Amino acid sequence: MAKAKYAVVISEDALVCEDLDVLKTLPAFGSVWRQAAVIRHNRSIYPTITYPCHTSMRTGCYPDRHGVVNNEQTILEEVSSKWEHFNDIVKVPDIFDRAKAQGLTTAAVYWPVTGNHPHIDWLVNEYWPQNPGEDEAECYRASGSSDETMDIVYRNIHLLHGHVRQHPWGEKFVNACACDMIERFRPNLLMLHPANIDGYRHETGVFSDKVIHGLHECDVWLADIFQALENAGIRDQTNFFVVSDHGQIDVRGSVLPNVLLRRAGLIDVNPDGSVRDYRAMCKSMGASCQVWLKHPEDEGVRREVQGVLEAAVREGVYGIERVMTTEEARKEERLSGGFSFVLETNGTYSFGNDWREPVIRPIDVSDYKLAHGTHGYRPDKGPQPCLMAFGPDIRPGAVVEKASIVDIAPTVAASLGFGMPDTDGRVVTEILR
To answer: With respect to CATH, is domain 250-374 assigned 3.30.70?
Structure first.
């Protein structure tokens, strides 16, 4: 029987096992290190990008079941599209649904794809103004924040003014909102998502001084969470799960497969360079890429597209390791959707969406997919995400070498005394008392 009444899940985006050596030397993380259990390699899902990963982390299911297969919406004729912010795209129940069914209260701050979630009592969705001039605070109301949650938003929005989608201002806002929720509402389940580590790895590479600086920031914010729990009188009744969604790898630039498709006559463009029509187009997932056919039932086009892509692999200069069919992706990595092929990097380049020359481009830090560090590749590549847990229901000193991010929701649920039926993950009993 679980002893704790509360659970806090902090997803430190792009945290990897190697970072634990730094964290254990810092004041807040170091203060609980001897009480902690660790999963050193918590295998991610494919694609290893934030929104599909976080949906797997909260549902315990792979993308072929939960349906979130990219950060962005699939609008192929755009170089960059709006993101998948809203919960209605998710096809399976999640830990918030299960917790509410048990009569528990729930909260989330910037946990992806939770917009307008019906079973999160206090919600600040990972969302931002979608159009010029839109209010920086009121956008959260549009994605599911209640009136009492908006009080917290307005209390802390000064931390974000002028710095939307920038680090570390976004994380300061996220953490401040989470602390206020703890003190005001004492939710049984709170899940939050700071992303400064991910941002710094994109900007400066996988291991850098700025990443170490970011780990120190995470320690300061963890101390704030500790203090909020103390103020609420629930610190000793709370289980903590510090988790991660994916790692990153360093790349040398980006490759644009849509340029190859355009050269082959599969994408037609207007005189101004915009897309007039297409038979096949690619949608980047960072270090992998989905290939969508306008008429996927047309076997002739399918063979033609596959021929162009396989020729690019053989040519050996585009950094494409493999062309996978949807059937292969589903069988090998539990990834499926309306796309027909998946391109996987060999680690040299990430993938861009543009269809205009040149086909190979240098690092571009203005787009996270095309920067120094990237992710989206198959989950066994590169430094691995990890998990650190501590609290009254956690076994101190337990070390598990390998588990999966689909195990996070079942394990957190078990620590609160309820189950997550019909998931792909398991309860990692090795870290529980």
So the answer is: no
Output the 3-class SS for 79-115.
CCCCECCEHHHCCCCCHHHHHHHCCCCEEEECCCCCE
Domain 6-248+381-431, what fold? Alkaline Phosphatase, subunit A (3.40.720)
Residue 4: per-residue pLDDT: 86
Q: What is the Cα–Cα distance from 361 to 405, expressed in whole angstroms?
A: 33
CA separation for the pair 210, 206 (Å, rounded): 10
CA distance 269 to 277: 7
Q: What is the pLDDT of residue 75?
A: 86
Same fold, 6-248+381-431 and 250-374: no
Any idea of the CA torsion for 386, 392, 394, 398, to the nearest 10 degrees?
100
What residue spans define the domains of the chain? 6-248+381-431, 250-374
Longest dimension (CA), the chain: 67
**Residues in the chain where the model's pLDDT stays below 70:** 1-2
Report yes or no on whether pTM surpasses 0.90: yes
pLDDT in tens, 166-186: 999 999 999 999 999 999 999
d(CA 56, CA 290): 19
Question: Which pair of tokens denotes residue 247?
Answer: 């790692």
